[in-house]
Design goal:
single chain; mainly beta; SH3 type barrels; three-stranded antiparallel sheet; 1 helix
């Protein structure tokens, strides 16, 4: 199970916001939420290409499957973090 917190919300999203998330140290996986409700998990910064108007996300590297996303339809960037287990409380 994952806990989700919003990193950025609103439209229009810009390429600089996404690049900033990709270059954070240490990198934290995040979801890209589209206006359609579709979500794309970014597991590693090298699996994403950002231009001024588009985002290409490698969805499945083994199957060579990508998602080509229009930046103008990105509504939210959400951080995904593992939820603490009951044993750690």
């Amino acid at each position: 199970m994952c806990r989700v917190s919003s990193l950025l919300k609103g439209n229009p999203m810009n390429a600089a916001n996404i690049r900033d998330l990709l270059h954070r140290e240490p990198f934290e996986p995040f979801e890209i939420v589209m206006s359609s409700g579709e979500k794309h998990l970014v597991k590693h910064p090298e699996l994403v290409l950002v231009t001024e108007g588009r985002i290409i996300v490698v969805v499945d590297p083994v199957a060579d499957r990508t998602a080509d996303l229009a930046l103008m339809h990105v509504t939210e960037l959400r951080r995904t973090q593992p939820q603490p287990s009951a044993e750690s409380n």
